[in-house]
Amino acid sequence: MKITEKAMLVRLTISQWTARRYDFKATKKLIEDHGAKHDSGRFNKMLVDNIEVKKYQHAASEARVFHYENTLPWGDDNVRILPSDNYLAYTQKMRELKSKFEKAYSEFIEEYPALIEKAENDLSGLFSARDYPAAWELESKFAFDIHVTPVPTANDFRVSLSDDDLNRIKSDIEADVKDSIVMAMGVAWKRLFTAVKHMAVKLADDDAVFRNSLIGNIAELCDLLPRLNITNDPKLTEIIGDARKALVPLDPKDLRDKQIDRKKATVKAKAVLEKMTAYMGD
Fold this sequence. Notes:
Blueprint: H1 3-6, E1 7-15, E2 20-22, H2 24-34, E3 44-46, H3 50-69, E4 72-73, E5 80-83, H4 87-123, H5 135-139, E6 143-150, H6 163-204, H7 213-228, H8 234-246, H9 252-257, H10 259-281
Antiparallel strand pairs: 1-5, 1-6, 2-3, 4-5
Helix pairs in contact: 3-4, 6-7, 6-10, 7-8, 8-10
């Protein structure tokens, strides 16, 4: 299985204006008024109405959540692996989310002068015009970028080194790629394991209250994980099939209203969980 033909690496970078500013004078006065140590805390003021700021923050957060749900970890520098099978669905949705983010911050920038006027009244003595960037400068603080690169291979490394050094570096690259694949697949397994375990625990407790998402989350994972199965792991494919057959068709209302259905569903969830545990132990 050539991972270079099955997946690519993707990095999502979103930047935005925090709309917050550390106020040294207010911090100093607050600490003195309470007789606290000089390094007891920091006072950060909200420069404009937080409700307006949250509009683009929520759009950014939605994009990050989707990005993490539809990719798997790779290394430790915010690079994720995106399986080719999930590329189309990922890029289509991310284009929508990028447009949503850009619309949100564009509307914010249009309202920016009025927000500053309001802040002058809201902050009163804490207001300082120097805290606010010019409108043209503010726009430069927002960005939404997706950078896609191929998965590295040992043969991509070409420098003038001795054969021994070159072979050692190639071996290190191959080992790093293998380790990253193992870690990525471990996360895929853990997502389903966590959801099934949560179901099993909730259903086993007769008094536990649960939402429809108890079933819905597993249904979503059964749709998504086949596209994230970068190694075509037959055991993961089998477990997904088991969960899809045994758990996805369950009706949350019946599980709440009918104790016998709830007990049967608990047995099914535990059976899938035990099988996953055995496989993951391998």
